[in-house]
Specification:
Oligomer: single chain
Helix content: 25-40%
């Protein structure tokens, strides 16, 4: 497991230093007296062909502030690329992620695309009075095909999608008729369209926010597949994400980049952001010619949050092998389309994109309103004398979810087992767990033996789930011994409130942290917080201790020890699984049990500090 999978935990642990203006603005409580509205403010042409939009974000205090501009190349962004393991996993499980998407949203996520008649109506009228054949690639729940069928009763539509669940939704639609729609599941990067559609039989192919979900190296396969079923002179009507869209900036800042201009969303689905140069070159190399292309750039205002959002998308028409379709020297022209003047009213909890804008990114996805817990699972955790059933987020989300406190990590399980085998570690002590996340299994074991336990984390959503887990796993007697509090490392108010729980501000006899040393920027705030909250007197004959259990990632042991020493901690003992057997304190915890055997493939480190 690499450190990049856990960086999202930084801000909740030790303060709001990494928050963006967008995150700050999101915290502003929206007014309940008026409906929340989105207004199309303007449509502005790009400064050059690379499209250099800026995101205007209004702060909660009402002051305008610019977020960092998206440069002409996303490869130099500050976002961390996903590891090869996750890149391969997102590709391998792409169909599964889309099936989950449609299981969750059914036909309620995208609005019907009634704008197709306005944008491309002239193409759906057969010149000879015959019937047109249309193929919708990536049909989803039918938001394109059913408006088309309603407007043009003489067309026949083939509709395919990667997700079999999406195809089932099409077939269950009230307007579905087998004599007018042929709906089938197909992975057009690897399966031939000709198995469900006659070769060279289709007049129009619609690709509406579809190609962006395909890995760039497989996009040519998609276009070659489409060529096989498209008539000579047939058209491809294309609309998809454009480079510089607000959603791209959000994904970039969260470290969800797979490759250049290609990102993974929090639900595992992916999105590519097209430049007009890339798109045209892609189609030209696959035997298509450009007929028209249009780059839309709109500023969408959310008045309740004082946000102005840049939304960019690209719209184009390509033809298969017509004559005279290229401009001189094989150069292509592009322009920015004029915008509509519609005003849109939507609730914050609903989609913020209108039929006209039709960008397939939900407002809540873009601004971090969590939906991850929809995918939470129950894990059974066993330790000596304990059988916990913990609700946590599946670890497949560990890269894209910024709240890693929603997951259960190996170090917590390891420390939980040690506490169950060695209750003397916490017996009769005032115990504080820092960065406990939503599982809280160490705190729950400690509650059986400690005087009391304060379980803390910096993220409210993790704490809400922690309350659920403790209440569903502990009997009332032990539940009364656990207090759950928010603690941002370095936050004076939080530290003061937590310290008061220790009893007359005496501090805690035992502080435990598992997997809290993964981020170098968090190490010093961690030890400053621990030093402020640890007891100087201990408990009777026992000195107060700080115990850290972790898997080494980006932060080496020397950096941890240096930060600890600077805050007045001294290392008393250390243990590294299979390497260092410790001086006796930690190694004694393993006598007479087989805790290590259950984690033999993981190299844990335990550091034991006193002041």
């Amino acid at each position: 497991m690499t450190s990049s999978k856990r960086l999202g935990r930084t801000s909740p642990r030790f303060g709001p230093t990494t928050q963006t203006p967008l995150q700050d603005a999101r915290k502003t409580k929206p007014s309940t007296s008026k409906p929340k509205r989105l207004r199309l403010v303007s449509s502005q042409p790009p400064a050059d062909s690379k499209l250099r939009p800026e995101l205007d974000s209004a702060m909660a205090a009402g002051e305008q502030q610019r977020t960092p501009q998206i440069s002409s190349s996303s490869t130099n962004s500050s976002g961390r690329p996903v590891t090869p393991f996750w890149k391969e996993k997102y590709e391998r499980d792409a169909r599964r992620y889309w099936d989950i998407f449609y299981k969750r949203h059914e036909d309620k996520f995208f609005k019907d695309r009634h704008y197709l008649d306005k944008e491309w109506g002239k193409y759906f009228v057969a010149q000879d009075g015959g019937n047109l054949v249309v193929l919708e690639v990536g049909c989803g729940a039918g938001n394109t095909i059913f408006p088309l069928l309603s407007t043009y009763p003489d067309i026949f539509v083939h509709a395919c999608d990667f997700s079999s669940r999406a195809v089932d939704l099409v077939k269950k639609h009230k307007d579905f008729r087998p004599d007018r729609v042929n709906a089938f599941a197909c992975d057009i990067t690897s399966e031939q369209l000709t198995e469900g559609v006659e070769p060279s039989s289709v007049d129009i192919v619609t690709m509406i926010f579809m190609l962006s979900a395909v890995a760039p190296d497989k996009m040519p396969l998609v276009l070659q597949n489409i060529r096989n079923i498209l008539k000579h002179g047939g058209r491809v009507l294309f609309r998809d994400y454009a480079f510089g869209d607000l959603a791209q900036e959000r994904l970039m800042s969260k470290g969800q980049q797979i490759s250049e201009n290609f990102y993974v969303r929090g639900d595992g689905t992916r999105a590519y952001y097209f430049s007009n140069e890339y798109l045209v070159d892609l189609f030209l190399k696959c035997g298509f010619a450009l007929e028209e292309i249009c780059v839309h750039n709109k500023k969408v205002e959310n008045r309740s949050l004082d946000l102005v959002m840049n939304r960019n998308w690209i719209q184009a028409t390509f033809t298969l092998n017509p004559a005279g379709s290229l401009s001189p020297n094989n150069q292509h022209d592009h322009h920015t389309c004029k915008g509509m003047e519609d005003e849109l009213a939507v609730e914050t909890s609903q989609k913020s994109d209108s039929e006209e804008i039709d960008l397939s990114v939900d407002f809540s996805y873009m601004f971090g309103i969590s939906r991850y817990l929809d995918e939470a699972q129950i894990l059974k955790i066993e330790a000596k004398g304990y059988d916990f059933k913990i609700k946590v987020l599946a670890k497949e989300y560990q890269h894209t979810c910024k709240l890693t406190g929603l997951m259960l990590w190996e170090s917590a399980q390891f420390m939980c087992s040690l506490l169950a085998e060695n209750p003397s570690i916490v017996a009769g002590r005032r115990v504080l767990e820092i960065g406990c996340g939503s599982a809280g299994i160490c705190s729950m074991v400690a509650a059986s033996f400690a005087q009391f336990v304060v379980a803390t984390d910096g993220d409210e959503e993790s704490l809400d789930l922690l309350r659920q887990n403790t209440s569903s796993n502990l009997e009332a007697e032990f539940l009364d011994r656990i207090w759950i509090r928010k603690l941002l490392w370095g936050n004076e108010d939080d530290m003061k409130a937590v310290k008061e729980l220790s009893g007359n501000g005496a501090g805690f006899d035992c502080i435990i942290g598992t997997d809290v040393t993964y981020n170098p920027d968090a190490i010093l705030p961690l030890f400053k917080t621990a030093r402020e909250l640890i007891s100087d007197k201990g408990n009777g004959d026992s000195e107060a201790v700080l115990i850290l259990c972790y898997i080494q990632r980006r932060v080496d042991e020397d950096s941890i020890l240096s930060a600890a020493k600077s805050q007045g901690f001294r290392l008393v003992d250390k243990w590294i699984n299979g390497v260092n057997k410790s001086n006796g304190i930690i190694s004694s915890w393993f006598c007479g049990n087989d805790v290590c055997s259950a984690f033999r493939n993981v190299t844990f480190s335990i550091l034991y500090f006193q002041v």
